[in-house]
């Protein structure tokens, strides 16, 4: 797909048809505009989705890696032109990466009542607490992604996660996911697992009710300025 026209009608329709072929299915429940494309008119992008929805190939559309301004603009075009609107947002959001979503995107989400599914919910594994140092992280496949978290704030967040995990007899990863689930504007987090045990820990987050003291400790530790 050409980067300059990633959300052109031709590219979207070709990509959807190819996905249907690979998945061996008749429709896609949620189809995301994964990266914004300011080279293609929003009307063209949303018009392509309208045809795909009318054809029964796509049920709902979502946006990912959009700014709040661009998401708002797309929603305005949908309303004024009678075109399908984005109903789901997929932002990067976790205890470390908070500011972009909370300051720019969350107001739009709440104003338009969009569903939110977060990616990098464990900050590429950093918030699981499995990396004790940069050297330790360098052994993993995501070392380049994790490196940026090893600073005073990142380590402060890990300390808070470990403390809350001990209070609740669980793991830092479970606590990190439970914190996201507790955010009022978030529908569900996205997180990956490489073992059954990791999967169990992620699932346990759906049953973990963090106390107000737990939430305060995590919020204070992850505050941008200290």
Low-confidence stretches: none
The N- and C-terminal alpha carbons lie at a distance of: 43 Å
Shape: elongated
How can the largest sheet be summarized? Answer: 5 strands, parallel
| Topology order in helix (H) and strand (E) letters | HEHEHEHEHHHHEHH
Kindly state the percentage of residues in helix.
40-55%
Q: What count of structural domains?
A: 2
- Main sheet strand line-up: 1-2-3-4-5
- The tally of helices reads 10
**For this entry, what is the oligomeric state of its chains?**
single chain
The assigned structural class equals alpha/beta
The proportion of residues in beta strands is 5-15%
Q: What's the Cα radius of gyration?
A: 19 Å
Number of strands: 5
What is the residue-mean pLDDT, rounded to a whole number? 93
Describe it for me?
It is a single chain. Helix content is 49%, strand content 10%. It has 226 residues and is α/β, with parallel strands linked by helices. The protein has two domains: 1-90, no CATH class; 124-226, no CATH class. Strand 3 (88-90), helix 4 (99-112) and strand 4 form a beta-alpha-beta unit. Helix 1 packs parallel to helix 2. The longest helix has 16 residues, at 152-167. The chain is elongated, with a radius of gyration of 19 Å.
């Amino acid at each position: 797909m050409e980067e300059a026209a990633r959300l052109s009608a031709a590219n979207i329709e070709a990509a959807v048809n190819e996905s249907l072929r690979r998945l061996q299915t008749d429709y896609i429940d949620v189809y995301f505009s994964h990266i914004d494309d300011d080279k293609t008119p929003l009307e063209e992008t949303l018009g392509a989705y309208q045809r795909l929805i009318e054809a029964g190939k796509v049920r709902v559309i979502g946006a990912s890696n959009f700014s709040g301004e661009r998401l708002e603009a797309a929603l305005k075009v949908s309303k004024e032109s009678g075109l399908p609107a984005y109903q789901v947002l997929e932002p990067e959001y976790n205890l470390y990466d908070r500011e972009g979503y909370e300051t720019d995107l969350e107001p739009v989400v709440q104003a338009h009542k969009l569903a939110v599914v977060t990616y990098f919910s464990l900050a590429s594994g950093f918030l699981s607490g499995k990396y004790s140092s940069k050297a330790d992280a360098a052994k993993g496949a995501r070392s380049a992604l994790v490196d940026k978290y090893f600073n005073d704030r990142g380590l402060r967040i890990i300390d808070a996660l470990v403390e809350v995990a001990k209070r609740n007899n669980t793991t830092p990863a479970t606590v990190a996911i439970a914190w996201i689930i507790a955010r009022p504007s978030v529908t569900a987090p996205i997180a990956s697992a490489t073992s059954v045990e990791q999967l169990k820990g992620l699932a346990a987050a759906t049953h973990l009710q963090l106390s107000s003291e737990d939430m305060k400790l995590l919020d204070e530790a992850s505050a941008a300025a200290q």
